[in-house]
Protein backbone atom coordinates (compact mmCIF):
# COMPACT_ATOMS: atom_id res chain seq x y z
CA UNK A 1 0.00 0.00 0.00
CA UNK A 2 1.88 3.10 -1.21
CA UNK A 3 -0.08 5.48 1.03
CA UNK A 4 1.11 6.76 4.39
CA UNK A 5 0.17 9.18 7.17
CA UNK A 6 3.09 11.59 7.62
CA UNK A 7 3.93 15.26 8.04
CA UNK A 8 7.01 14.58 5.95
CA UNK A 9 9.12 11.52 5.27
CA UNK A 10 12.17 13.29 6.73
CA UNK A 11 10.56 13.85 10.11
CA UNK A 12 8.60 10.60 10.33
CA UNK A 13 11.14 8.64 12.41
CA UNK A 14 11.91 11.38 14.93
CA UNK A 15 8.20 12.16 15.38
CA UNK A 16 7.37 8.49 15.88
CA UNK A 17 10.07 8.12 18.52
CA UNK A 18 8.80 11.23 20.28
CA UNK A 19 5.32 9.72 20.32
CA UNK A 20 6.67 6.52 21.85
CA UNK A 21 8.54 8.43 24.56
CA UNK A 22 5.42 10.49 25.29
CA UNK A 23 3.47 7.32 26.07
CA UNK A 24 6.01 6.10 28.62
CA UNK A 25 7.34 8.63 31.17
CA UNK A 26 10.19 6.25 32.06
CA UNK A 27 11.65 6.78 28.60
CA UNK A 28 13.66 9.71 27.30
CA UNK A 29 14.59 10.67 23.74
CA UNK A 30 17.95 12.07 22.72
CA UNK A 31 18.29 12.67 18.99
CA UNK A 32 17.02 9.31 17.68
CA UNK A 33 18.00 7.29 20.75
CA UNK A 34 15.28 6.12 23.11
CA UNK A 35 16.65 5.28 26.56
CA UNK A 36 15.59 4.77 30.14
CA UNK A 37 15.61 8.01 32.09
CA UNK A 38 17.08 6.30 35.15
CA UNK A 39 18.80 3.04 34.28
CA UNK A 40 19.90 0.86 37.16
CA UNK A 41 23.60 1.62 37.71
CA UNK A 42 24.22 -1.78 39.29
CA UNK A 43 22.99 -3.67 36.23
CA UNK A 44 24.45 -4.41 32.82
CA UNK A 45 22.95 -2.24 30.08
CA UNK A 46 21.61 -3.59 26.81
CA UNK A 47 21.93 -1.39 23.74
CA UNK A 48 20.50 -2.25 20.35
CA UNK A 49 19.41 -0.47 17.22
CA UNK A 50 19.21 -0.34 13.48
CA UNK A 51 17.06 1.21 10.82
CA UNK A 52 13.52 2.31 11.53
CA UNK A 53 10.61 0.53 9.87
CA UNK A 54 10.82 -2.61 12.01
CA UNK A 55 8.47 -1.46 14.75
CA UNK A 56 8.04 -2.34 17.53
CA UNK A 57 11.73 -3.18 17.17
CA UNK A 58 13.83 -1.63 18.35
CA UNK A 59 12.79 1.35 20.45
CA UNK A 60 9.59 -0.18 21.84
CA UNK A 61 11.64 -2.88 23.55
CA UNK A 62 13.33 -0.31 25.78
CA UNK A 63 11.98 -0.78 29.28
CA UNK A 64 12.78 -2.23 32.67
CA UNK A 65 13.58 -5.92 32.29
CA UNK A 66 14.60 -5.66 28.65
CA UNK A 67 16.63 -3.05 26.71
CA UNK A 68 18.24 0.01 28.25
CA UNK A 69 18.54 2.01 25.03
CA UNK A 70 17.91 1.73 21.30
CA UNK A 71 19.47 3.85 18.56
CA UNK A 72 17.38 4.34 15.45
CA UNK A 73 18.45 5.24 11.96
CA UNK A 74 16.18 6.37 9.17
CA UNK A 75 13.90 3.80 7.51
CA UNK A 76 15.93 0.67 6.71
CA UNK A 77 19.19 2.60 7.28
CA UNK A 78 21.60 2.05 10.15
CA UNK A 79 22.31 4.91 12.56
CA UNK A 80 25.85 6.28 12.35
CA UNK A 81 28.65 5.43 14.75
CA UNK A 82 28.55 8.86 16.39
CA UNK A 83 24.92 8.33 17.43
CA UNK A 84 25.86 4.97 18.89
CA UNK A 85 28.77 6.52 20.79
CA UNK A 86 26.47 9.13 22.31
CA UNK A 87 24.24 6.32 23.53
CA UNK A 88 27.23 4.50 25.03
CA UNK A 89 28.11 7.65 26.99
CA UNK A 90 24.67 7.66 28.59
CA UNK A 91 25.19 4.05 29.68
CA UNK A 92 28.83 4.36 30.75
CA UNK A 93 28.03 4.53 34.49
CA UNK A 94 26.32 1.12 34.50
CA UNK A 95 27.96 -2.30 35.00
CA UNK A 96 28.97 -2.61 31.36
CA UNK A 97 27.04 -2.63 28.07
CA UNK A 98 26.15 -5.44 25.70
CA UNK A 99 25.36 -4.23 22.19
CA UNK A 100 23.03 -6.57 20.30
CA UNK A 101 22.51 -5.97 16.58
CA UNK A 102 21.04 -7.89 13.68
CA UNK A 103 23.44 -9.24 11.11
CA UNK A 104 23.21 -6.56 8.42
CA UNK A 105 26.30 -4.89 7.02
CA UNK A 106 25.36 -1.33 7.98
CA UNK A 107 24.40 -2.22 11.56
CA UNK A 108 27.51 -4.34 12.12
CA UNK A 109 29.83 -1.67 10.69
CA UNK A 110 28.34 1.34 12.50
CA UNK A 111 27.83 -0.30 15.89
CA UNK A 112 31.17 -2.10 15.54
CA UNK A 113 32.95 1.17 14.74
CA UNK A 114 31.40 2.82 17.79
CA UNK A 115 32.51 -0.09 19.98
CA UNK A 116 36.09 0.05 18.66
CA UNK A 117 36.28 3.82 19.16
CA UNK A 118 35.02 3.34 22.68
CA UNK A 119 37.64 0.70 23.35
CA UNK A 120 40.36 2.97 21.93
CA UNK A 121 39.45 5.77 24.32
CA UNK A 122 38.88 3.52 27.34
CA UNK A 123 42.05 1.47 27.38
CA UNK A 124 42.20 -1.27 29.94
CA UNK A 125 38.43 -1.58 30.09
CA UNK A 126 36.28 -4.39 28.75
CA UNK A 127 32.98 -2.71 29.45
CA UNK A 128 31.40 -2.86 26.00
CA UNK A 129 30.71 -6.07 24.09
CA UNK A 130 29.07 -6.62 20.69
CA UNK A 131 26.87 -9.57 19.74
CA UNK A 132 25.69 -9.99 16.15
CA UNK A 133 22.55 -12.12 15.73
CA UNK A 134 21.83 -14.05 12.55
CA UNK A 135 18.81 -16.35 12.78
CA UNK A 136 17.61 -16.54 9.16
CA UNK A 137 17.54 -20.07 7.73
CA UNK A 138 16.12 -19.23 4.30
CA UNK A 139 19.40 -18.25 2.63
CA UNK A 140 21.59 -21.28 1.85
CA UNK A 141 25.02 -21.55 3.46
CA UNK A 142 26.79 -21.42 0.12
CA UNK A 143 25.01 -18.20 -0.80
CA UNK A 144 25.58 -16.42 2.49
CA UNK A 145 29.00 -17.86 3.35
CA UNK A 146 30.65 -14.42 3.50
CA UNK A 147 27.87 -12.32 5.00
CA UNK A 148 26.32 -14.97 7.24
CA UNK A 149 22.70 -15.33 8.23
CA UNK A 150 20.46 -12.27 8.35
CA UNK A 151 19.14 -11.08 11.67
CA UNK A 152 15.38 -11.47 11.93
CA UNK A 153 12.63 -11.72 14.55
CA UNK A 154 14.37 -14.11 16.95
CA UNK A 155 16.72 -11.22 17.75
CA UNK A 156 13.94 -9.88 19.97
CA UNK A 157 13.97 -13.10 22.00
CA UNK A 158 17.68 -12.47 22.57
CA UNK A 159 16.75 -8.99 23.85
CA UNK A 160 14.14 -10.42 26.18
CA UNK A 161 16.17 -13.19 27.77
CA UNK A 162 19.42 -11.23 28.04
CA UNK A 163 17.57 -8.19 29.36
CA UNK A 164 15.83 -10.23 32.03
CA UNK A 165 19.13 -11.71 33.21
CA UNK A 166 20.70 -8.25 33.33
CA UNK A 167 17.78 -7.08 35.48
CA UNK A 168 18.63 -9.85 37.95
CA UNK A 169 22.05 -8.24 38.49
CA UNK A 170 24.10 -10.69 36.38
CA UNK A 171 27.58 -9.75 35.17
CA UNK A 172 28.46 -8.64 31.65
CA UNK A 173 30.03 -12.06 31.01
CA UNK A 174 26.87 -13.82 32.13
CA UNK A 175 24.53 -11.59 30.12
CA UNK A 176 26.67 -12.02 27.02
CA UNK A 177 26.81 -15.78 27.55
CA UNK A 178 23.05 -16.27 27.76
CA UNK A 179 22.55 -13.98 24.75
CA UNK A 180 24.92 -16.16 22.72
CA UNK A 181 23.10 -19.33 23.78
CA UNK A 182 19.81 -17.96 22.45
CA UNK A 183 21.35 -16.53 19.27
CA UNK A 184 23.20 -19.76 18.44
CA UNK A 185 20.05 -21.85 18.79
CA UNK A 186 17.57 -19.67 16.94
CA UNK A 187 16.08 -20.11 13.49
CA UNK A 188 13.64 -17.89 11.58
CA UNK A 189 11.95 -18.25 8.20
CA UNK A 190 9.40 -15.85 6.70
CA UNK A 191 7.09 -15.32 3.74
CA UNK A 192 5.37 -12.29 2.24
CA UNK A 193 2.19 -11.84 0.26
CA UNK A 194 3.60 -8.56 -1.04
CA UNK A 195 6.56 -6.24 -0.64
CA UNK A 196 6.26 -3.29 1.70
CA UNK A 197 6.30 0.31 0.53
CA UNK A 198 8.84 2.79 1.88
CA UNK A 199 7.35 6.26 2.49
CA UNK A 200 8.62 8.81 0.00
CA UNK A 201 9.68 6.31 -2.64
CA UNK A 202 8.16 5.51 -5.99
CA UNK A 203 7.27 1.97 -6.79
CA UNK A 204 6.43 0.52 -10.17
CA UNK A 205 4.11 -2.33 -10.95
CA UNK A 206 7.14 -4.60 -11.47
CA UNK A 207 8.00 -4.26 -7.78
CA UNK A 208 4.81 -5.99 -6.70
CA UNK A 209 3.92 -9.66 -6.60
CA UNK A 210 1.13 -11.06 -8.73
CA UNK A 211 -2.29 -11.54 -7.17
CA UNK A 212 -1.75 -15.30 -6.81
CA UNK A 213 1.90 -15.19 -5.69
CA UNK A 214 3.78 -15.25 -2.42
CA UNK A 215 7.48 -14.84 -1.83
CA UNK A 216 9.31 -17.35 0.36
CA UNK A 217 12.30 -16.26 2.42
CA UNK A 218 11.40 -12.60 2.80
CA UNK A 219 13.80 -10.42 4.73
CA UNK A 220 12.84 -7.25 6.58
CA UNK A 221 14.33 -4.65 4.22
CA UNK A 222 12.20 -5.32 1.13
CA UNK A 223 14.86 -7.59 -0.31
CA UNK A 224 13.50 -10.39 -2.52
CA UNK A 225 13.01 -13.83 -1.08
CA UNK A 226 14.62 -17.00 -2.33
CA UNK A 227 11.72 -17.86 -4.65
CA UNK A 228 8.14 -17.06 -5.59
CA UNK A 229 5.29 -19.54 -5.30
CA UNK A 230 2.03 -19.57 -7.26
CA UNK A 231 -0.77 -20.27 -6.60
CA UNK A 232 -0.74 -19.28 -2.94
CA UNK A 233 -0.44 -22.45 -0.84
CA UNK A 234 -2.63 -23.17 2.17
CA UNK A 235 -1.52 -22.07 5.63
CA UNK A 236 -0.77 -25.70 6.42
CA UNK A 237 1.60 -26.09 3.46
CA UNK A 238 3.40 -22.80 4.09
CA UNK A 239 3.95 -23.60 7.76
CA UNK A 240 5.17 -27.08 6.85
CA UNK A 241 7.83 -25.67 4.52
CA UNK A 242 9.06 -23.07 7.02
CA UNK A 243 9.24 -25.38 10.04
CA UNK A 244 10.76 -28.21 8.02
CA UNK A 245 13.61 -25.90 7.03
CA UNK A 246 14.14 -24.55 10.56
CA UNK A 247 14.24 -28.01 12.17
CA UNK A 248 16.08 -29.85 9.41
CA UNK A 249 19.12 -31.94 10.28
CA UNK A 250 19.67 -33.25 6.75
CA UNK A 251 19.70 -30.10 4.60
CA UNK A 252 23.37 -29.16 4.51
CA UNK A 253 22.48 -25.72 3.19
CA UNK A 254 19.98 -24.86 5.94
CA UNK A 255 20.61 -27.06 8.97
CA UNK A 256 21.74 -24.19 11.18
CA UNK A 257 20.00 -25.11 14.45
CA UNK A 258 21.15 -28.35 16.18
CA UNK A 259 17.84 -30.16 16.35
CA UNK A 260 17.97 -33.91 16.94
CA UNK A 261 14.35 -34.66 16.04
CA UNK A 262 14.28 -37.55 18.48
CA UNK A 263 11.14 -36.54 20.33
CA UNK A 264 13.05 -34.70 23.06
CA UNK A 265 13.62 -31.31 21.41
CA UNK A 266 12.09 -28.39 23.34
CA UNK A 267 11.54 -24.94 21.88
CA UNK A 268 10.22 -21.44 22.28
CA UNK A 269 7.85 -20.65 19.39
CA UNK A 270 7.41 -17.13 18.02
CA UNK A 271 5.01 -16.26 15.19
CA UNK A 272 5.85 -12.75 14.04
CA UNK A 273 3.67 -10.39 12.03
CA UNK A 274 5.80 -8.62 9.43
CA UNK A 275 3.52 -5.60 9.58
CA UNK A 276 0.43 -6.00 7.45
CA UNK A 277 -1.03 -9.45 8.10
CA UNK A 278 -4.46 -9.48 9.77
CA UNK A 279 -4.45 -10.88 13.30
CA UNK A 280 -7.08 -13.38 12.14
CA UNK A 281 -4.64 -14.96 9.67
CA UNK A 282 -1.72 -14.75 12.10
CA UNK A 283 -3.67 -16.76 14.68
CA UNK A 284 -4.33 -19.36 11.99
CA UNK A 285 -0.57 -19.64 11.46
CA UNK A 286 -0.12 -20.18 15.20
CA UNK A 287 -2.65 -23.01 15.11
CA UNK A 288 -0.93 -24.74 12.19
CA UNK A 289 2.52 -24.32 13.76
CA UNK A 290 1.27 -25.85 17.01
CA UNK A 291 -0.19 -28.85 15.19
CA UNK A 292 2.96 -29.33 13.09
CA UNK A 293 5.26 -29.28 16.10
CA UNK A 294 3.05 -31.74 17.93
CA UNK A 295 3.09 -34.14 14.98
CA UNK A 296 6.89 -33.95 14.92
CA UNK A 297 7.09 -34.52 18.69
CA UNK A 298 8.80 -31.18 19.28
CA UNK A 299 7.73 -29.88 22.68
CA UNK A 300 6.73 -26.21 22.84
CA UNK A 301 7.70 -24.83 26.23
CA UNK A 302 6.56 -21.28 25.46
CA UNK A 303 4.70 -19.66 22.57
CA UNK A 304 4.19 -16.02 21.64
CA UNK A 305 2.68 -14.25 18.64
CA UNK A 306 2.25 -10.71 17.40
CA UNK A 307 4.30 -8.02 15.74
CA UNK A 308 7.85 -8.05 17.10
CA UNK A 309 9.99 -7.16 14.10
CA UNK A 310 8.09 -5.80 11.12
CA UNK A 311 8.94 -4.59 7.67
CA UNK A 312 6.72 -1.49 7.61
CA UNK A 313 3.39 -2.61 6.11
CA UNK A 314 4.50 -5.91 4.61
CA UNK A 315 1.65 -8.47 4.66
CA UNK A 316 3.47 -11.55 5.77
CA UNK A 317 4.82 -13.45 8.74
CA UNK A 318 7.85 -15.28 10.03
CA UNK A 319 8.18 -18.24 12.35
CA UNK A 320 11.03 -18.46 14.84
CA UNK A 321 12.11 -21.37 17.00
CA UNK A 322 14.66 -21.19 19.80
CA UNK A 323 15.95 -24.66 20.64
CA UNK A 324 16.34 -24.97 24.39
CA UNK A 325 19.47 -26.68 25.79
CA UNK A 326 19.09 -30.22 27.10
CA UNK A 327 22.13 -29.87 29.32
CA UNK A 328 23.65 -26.81 31.00
CA UNK A 329 25.81 -24.80 28.60
CA UNK A 330 29.27 -24.37 30.06
CA UNK A 331 30.76 -20.92 30.42
CA UNK A 332 34.02 -20.05 28.76
CA UNK A 333 37.30 -20.56 30.56
CA UNK A 334 37.68 -16.78 30.96
CA UNK A 335 34.96 -16.40 33.58
CA UNK A 336 33.22 -18.37 36.28
CA UNK A 337 29.59 -18.10 37.26
CA UNK A 338 27.32 -19.36 39.97
CA UNK A 339 24.47 -19.46 37.47
CA UNK A 340 23.46 -22.67 35.72
CA UNK A 341 22.85 -21.83 32.07
CA UNK A 342 20.17 -24.40 31.34
CA UNK A 343 16.64 -24.58 30.00
CA UNK A 344 15.14 -23.48 33.31
CA UNK A 345 17.17 -20.28 33.36
CA UNK A 346 16.22 -19.38 29.79
CA UNK A 347 12.54 -20.02 30.48
CA UNK A 348 12.68 -18.06 33.72
CA UNK A 349 14.16 -15.08 31.86
CA UNK A 350 11.63 -15.41 29.05
CA UNK A 351 8.80 -15.35 31.60
CA UNK A 352 10.26 -12.48 33.64
CA UNK A 353 8.14 -9.30 33.69
CA UNK A 354 9.12 -6.32 31.58
CA UNK A 355 7.75 -2.83 31.10
CA UNK A 356 8.89 -2.68 27.47
CA UNK A 357 5.73 -1.70 25.55
CA UNK A 358 6.61 -3.73 22.47
CA UNK A 359 6.77 -7.08 24.24
CA UNK A 360 3.51 -8.98 23.94
CA UNK A 361 1.80 -10.85 26.71
CA UNK A 362 2.38 -14.58 26.73
CA UNK A 363 1.19 -17.40 28.92
CA UNK A 364 3.79 -18.27 31.56
CA UNK A 365 3.56 -21.98 30.99
CA UNK A 366 3.45 -24.63 28.30
CA UNK A 367 0.70 -23.99 25.77
CA UNK A 368 -1.82 -26.77 25.56
CA UNK A 369 -3.49 -28.33 22.58
CA UNK A 370 -6.85 -26.74 21.95
CA UNK A 371 -9.70 -29.15 22.44
CA UNK A 372 -12.79 -27.93 20.65
CA UNK A 373 -15.75 -28.93 22.73
CA UNK A 374 -18.41 -30.67 20.72
CA UNK A 375 -22.05 -29.85 21.11
CA UNK A 376 -24.11 -32.46 22.80
CA UNK A 377 -25.25 -34.97 20.28
CA UNK A 378 -28.96 -35.40 20.11
CA UNK A 379 -30.26 -38.56 18.57
CA UNK A 380 -32.51 -37.78 15.66
CA UNK A 381 -35.57 -39.89 15.27
CA UNK A 382 -36.20 -41.24 11.84
CA UNK A 383 -38.75 -39.31 9.90
CA UNK A 384 -42.17 -40.84 9.98
CA UNK A 385 -45.59 -39.95 8.74
CA UNK A 386 -46.65 -39.04 12.26
CA UNK A 387 -46.80 -35.44 13.50
CA UNK A 388 -47.04 -32.24 11.50
CA UNK A 389 -46.38 -32.62 7.82
CA UNK A 390 -45.87 -29.85 5.32
CA UNK A 391 -47.01 -29.86 1.71
CA UNK A 392 -44.99 -31.84 -0.80
CA UNK A 393 -43.53 -30.22 -3.94
CA UNK A 394 -45.77 -30.60 -6.96
CA UNK A 395 -42.69 -31.87 -8.81
CA UNK A 396 -39.89 -32.97 -6.42
CA UNK A 397 -37.26 -33.22 -9.18
CA UNK A 398 -38.10 -29.75 -10.49
CA UNK A 399 -38.04 -28.34 -6.95
CA UNK A 400 -34.49 -29.60 -6.26
CA UNK A 401 -33.29 -28.62 -9.76
CA UNK A 402 -34.53 -25.05 -9.30
CA UNK A 403 -32.93 -24.81 -5.87
CA UNK A 404 -29.64 -26.24 -7.18
CA UNK A 405 -29.52 -23.80 -10.09
CA UNK A 406 -30.25 -20.85 -7.82
CA UNK A 407 -27.30 -21.83 -5.63
CA UNK A 408 -24.98 -22.24 -8.62
CA UNK A 409 -25.74 -18.74 -9.92
CA UNK A 410 -25.19 -17.19 -6.49
CA UNK A 411 -21.79 -18.90 -6.21
CA UNK A 412 -20.78 -17.91 -9.75
CA UNK A 413 -21.77 -14.29 -9.09
CA UNK A 414 -19.48 -13.96 -6.03
CA UNK A 415 -16.80 -11.78 -7.74
CA UNK A 416 -19.46 -9.48 -9.19
CA UNK A 417 -21.35 -9.16 -5.90
CA UNK A 418 -18.10 -8.64 -3.98
CA UNK A 419 -17.11 -5.82 -6.33
CA UNK A 420 -20.47 -4.10 -5.82
CA UNK A 421 -20.21 -4.44 -2.05
CA UNK A 422 -16.62 -3.19 -2.02
CA UNK A 423 -17.73 0.00 -3.73
CA UNK A 424 -20.91 0.50 -1.71
CA UNK A 425 -20.54 -1.51 1.49
CA UNK A 426 -18.04 -3.49 3.52
CA UNK A 427 -16.97 -5.93 0.80
CA UNK A 428 -18.18 -9.19 2.35
CA UNK A 429 -21.57 -9.74 0.67
CA UNK A 430 -20.29 -11.93 -2.17
CA UNK A 431 -18.34 -14.29 0.07
CA UNK A 432 -21.15 -14.39 2.62
CA UNK A 433 -23.71 -15.42 0.03
CA UNK A 434 -21.29 -17.89 -1.52
CA UNK A 435 -20.67 -19.50 1.88
CA UNK A 436 -24.39 -19.87 2.46
CA UNK A 437 -25.01 -21.29 -1.00
CA UNK A 438 -22.15 -23.78 -0.70
CA UNK A 439 -23.48 -24.84 2.70
CA UNK A 440 -26.91 -25.55 1.25
CA UNK A 441 -25.30 -27.46 -1.64
CA UNK A 442 -23.45 -29.62 0.87
CA UNK A 443 -26.67 -30.27 2.80
CA UNK A 444 -28.40 -31.25 -0.47
CA UNK A 445 -25.53 -33.58 -1.37
CA UNK A 446 -26.11 -35.47 1.88
CA UNK A 447 -29.86 -35.65 1.22
CA UNK A 448 -30.44 -33.16 4.01
CA UNK A 449 -32.93 -31.05 2.04
CA UNK A 450 -36.25 -32.83 1.76
CA UNK A 451 -37.84 -33.29 -1.67
CA UNK A 452 -40.99 -34.63 -0.01
CA UNK A 453 -41.83 -31.76 2.32
CA UNK A 454 -41.14 -28.11 1.44
CA UNK A 455 -41.55 -27.04 5.08
CA UNK A 456 -38.73 -29.33 6.19
CA UNK A 457 -36.68 -28.18 3.22
CA UNK A 458 -37.04 -24.51 4.24
CA UNK A 459 -36.16 -25.33 7.86
CA UNK A 460 -32.99 -27.09 6.69
CA UNK A 461 -31.99 -24.14 4.49
CA UNK A 462 -32.64 -21.73 7.35
CA UNK A 463 -30.37 -23.76 9.65
CA UNK A 464 -27.57 -23.81 7.09
CA UNK A 465 -27.58 -20.09 6.27
CA UNK A 466 -27.66 -19.21 9.96
CA UNK A 467 -24.53 -21.28 10.54
CA UNK A 468 -22.61 -20.62 7.33
CA UNK A 469 -23.39 -16.97 6.59
CA UNK A 470 -23.53 -15.13 9.88
CA UNK A 471 -23.83 -11.35 10.10
CA UNK A 472 -26.81 -9.31 8.97
CA UNK A 473 -27.43 -11.26 5.75
CA UNK A 474 -27.27 -14.58 7.55
CA UNK A 475 -29.72 -13.39 10.16
CA UNK A 476 -32.19 -12.00 7.62
CA UNK A 477 -32.08 -15.06 5.38
CA UNK A 478 -32.40 -17.43 8.32
CA UNK A 479 -35.42 -15.56 9.64
CA UNK A 480 -36.93 -15.48 6.17
CA UNK A 481 -36.57 -19.21 5.49
CA UNK A 482 -37.76 -20.12 8.99
CA UNK A 483 -40.77 -17.85 8.49
CA UNK A 484 -41.33 -19.31 5.04
CA UNK A 485 -41.49 -22.81 6.53
CA UNK A 486 -44.22 -21.67 8.90
CA UNK A 487 -45.93 -19.65 6.16
CA UNK A 488 -46.07 -22.59 3.77
CA UNK A 489 -47.59 -24.77 6.47
CA UNK A 490 -50.28 -22.20 7.26
CA UNK A 491 -50.93 -21.50 3.56
CA UNK A 492 -51.47 -25.20 2.83
CA UNK A 493 -53.96 -25.43 5.69
CA UNK A 494 -55.80 -22.28 4.56
CA UNK A 495 -56.20 -23.61 1.04
CA UNK A 496 -56.70 -27.26 1.99
CA UNK A 497 -53.77 -28.38 -0.14
CA UNK A 498 -51.41 -31.31 0.33
CA UNK A 499 -49.17 -30.07 -2.45
CA UNK A 500 -47.11 -26.87 -2.56
CA UNK A 501 -49.02 -25.28 -5.41
CA UNK A 502 -48.16 -21.87 -6.83
CA UNK A 503 -50.94 -20.40 -4.64
CA UNK A 504 -49.46 -22.02 -1.52
CA UNK A 505 -46.00 -20.65 -2.37
CA UNK A 506 -47.43 -17.18 -3.01
CA UNK A 507 -49.26 -17.05 0.32
CA UNK A 508 -46.33 -18.59 2.21
CA UNK A 509 -43.93 -16.02 0.74
CA UNK A 510 -46.30 -13.20 1.70
CA UNK A 511 -46.45 -14.41 5.31
CA UNK A 512 -42.65 -14.79 5.40
CA UNK A 513 -42.14 -11.23 4.16
CA UNK A 514 -44.48 -9.90 6.83
CA UNK A 515 -42.48 -11.78 9.47
CA UNK A 516 -39.21 -10.41 8.08
CA UNK A 517 -40.57 -6.87 8.38
CA UNK A 518 -40.70 -7.34 12.16
CA UNK A 519 -36.92 -7.57 12.25
CA UNK A 520 -35.82 -4.95 9.74
CA UNK A 521 -36.91 -1.38 9.15
CA UNK A 522 -35.97 -1.59 5.48
CA UNK A 523 -38.92 -1.04 3.16
CA UNK A 524 -38.75 -0.68 -0.61
CA UNK A 525 -37.19 1.37 -2.03
CA UNK A 526 -34.29 1.21 0.41
CA UNK A 527 -31.33 -0.04 -1.67
CA UNK A 528 -31.28 -3.38 0.15
CA UNK A 529 -32.15 -6.99 -0.61
CA UNK A 530 -35.71 -6.14 0.50
CA UNK A 531 -36.29 -4.23 -2.75
CA UNK A 532 -36.27 -7.15 -5.23
CA UNK A 533 -37.53 -9.63 -2.63
CA UNK A 534 -40.63 -7.60 -1.82
CA UNK A 535 -41.25 -6.78 -5.49
CA UNK A 536 -41.10 -10.44 -6.43
CA UNK A 537 -43.33 -11.62 -3.59
CA UNK A 538 -46.02 -8.96 -3.99
CA UNK A 539 -46.19 -9.42 -7.77
CA UNK A 540 -46.20 -13.20 -7.47
CA UNK A 541 -48.91 -13.04 -4.79
CA UNK A 542 -51.18 -11.11 -7.13
CA UNK A 543 -50.70 -13.66 -9.95
CA UNK A 544 -49.21 -16.96 -8.69
CA UNK A 545 -49.24 -18.58 -12.12
CA UNK A 546 -47.05 -15.91 -13.69
CA UNK A 547 -43.52 -16.41 -12.36
CA UNK A 548 -42.00 -14.42 -15.21
CA UNK A 549 -43.95 -11.31 -14.31
CA UNK A 550 -42.80 -11.53 -10.70
CA UNK A 551 -39.22 -12.09 -11.84
CA UNK A 552 -39.31 -9.01 -14.09
CA UNK A 553 -40.56 -6.93 -11.14
CA UNK A 554 -37.66 -8.21 -9.03
CA UNK A 555 -35.14 -7.49 -11.77
CA UNK A 556 -36.42 -3.95 -12.21
CA UNK A 557 -36.21 -3.40 -8.45
CA UNK A 558 -32.65 -4.75 -8.29
CA UNK A 559 -31.54 -2.59 -11.23
CA UNK A 560 -33.20 0.43 -9.66
CA UNK A 561 -30.96 0.17 -6.60
CA UNK A 562 -28.19 1.68 -8.76
CA UNK A 563 -29.84 5.08 -8.44
CA UNK A 564 -31.62 4.84 -5.09
CA UNK A 565 -30.42 6.65 -2.00
CA UNK A 566 -29.64 4.07 0.67
CA UNK A 567 -31.88 4.33 3.73
CA UNK A 568 -30.85 1.06 5.37
CA UNK A 569 -27.97 -1.41 5.33
CA UNK A 570 -24.23 -0.66 5.18
CA UNK A 571 -24.62 1.56 2.12
CA UNK A 572 -26.49 4.05 4.28
CA UNK A 573 -23.12 4.98 5.81
CA UNK A 574 -21.31 5.41 2.49
CA UNK A 575 -20.72 8.80 0.91
CA UNK A 576 -23.77 9.55 -1.29
CA UNK A 577 -21.63 11.07 -4.01
CA UNK A 578 -19.47 7.95 -4.13
CA UNK A 579 -22.55 5.79 -4.63
CA UNK A 580 -23.84 8.05 -7.40
CA UNK A 581 -20.52 7.91 -9.22
CA UNK A 582 -20.19 4.13 -8.83
CA UNK A 583 -23.66 3.43 -10.31
CA UNK A 584 -23.60 -0.12 -8.98
CA UNK A 585 -26.62 -2.05 -7.70
CA UNK A 586 -26.94 -3.10 -4.09
CA UNK A 587 -24.96 -6.28 -3.51
CA UNK A 588 -27.68 -7.95 -1.42
CA UNK A 589 -30.32 -7.10 -3.99
CA UNK A 590 -28.16 -8.60 -6.72
CA UNK A 591 -27.83 -11.80 -4.72
CA UNK A 592 -31.63 -12.14 -4.54
CA UNK A 593 -31.85 -11.52 -8.29
CA UNK A 594 -29.29 -14.22 -9.06
CA UNK A 595 -31.23 -16.76 -6.98
CA UNK A 596 -34.43 -15.93 -8.85
CA UNK A 597 -32.57 -16.15 -12.17
CA UNK A 598 -31.58 -19.70 -11.32
CA UNK A 599 -35.18 -20.69 -10.58
CA UNK A 600 -36.40 -19.00 -13.76
CA UNK A 601 -33.81 -20.81 -15.87
CA UNK A 602 -35.04 -24.21 -14.71
CA UNK A 603 -38.70 -23.27 -15.13
CA UNK A 604 -38.04 -21.98 -18.66
CA UNK A 605 -36.39 -25.28 -19.59
CA UNK A 606 -39.57 -27.09 -18.57
CA UNK A 607 -41.71 -25.21 -21.04
Automatic annotation (TrEMBL):
Region annotation (Disordered) ranges: 372-392
Pathway: Polyol metabolism; glycerol fermentation; glycerone phosphate from glycerol (oxidative route): step 2/2
UniProt record, GO biological process: anaerobic glycerol catabolic process
Domain (DhaK) ranges: 8-359
Binding-site residues for substrate, renumbered to this chain: 51-54, 102, 107
Pfam families with a match to the protein in the record: Dak1, Dak2
InterPro entries: DhaK_ATP, DhaK_dom, DhaL_dom, DhaL_dom_sf, Dihydroxyacetone_Kinase
Biased composition (Basic and acidic residues): 372-388
One Gene Ontology CC term in the entry: cytosol
SUPFAM superfamilies the record matches: DAK1/DegV-like (SSF82549), DhaL-like (SSF101473)
Entry annotation: catalytic residues: 221
Record keywords, A-Z: ATP-binding, Glycerol metabolism, Kinase, Nucleotide-binding, Transferase
Recorded coiled-coil stretches: none
DhaL domain boundaries: 397-601
GO molecular function: ATP binding; glycerone kinase activity; triokinase activity
Reactions performed catalytically: dihydroxyacetone + ATP = dihydroxyacetone phosphate + ADP + H(+); D-glyceraldehyde + ATP = D-glyceraldehyde 3-phosphate + ADP + H(+)
Task of the protein: Catalyzes both the phosphorylation of dihydroxyacetone and of glyceraldehyde.
Family: Belongs to the dihydroxyacetone kinase (DAK) family.
Protein name, as recorded: Dak1 domain-domain-containing protein
Organism: Leucosporidium creatinivorum
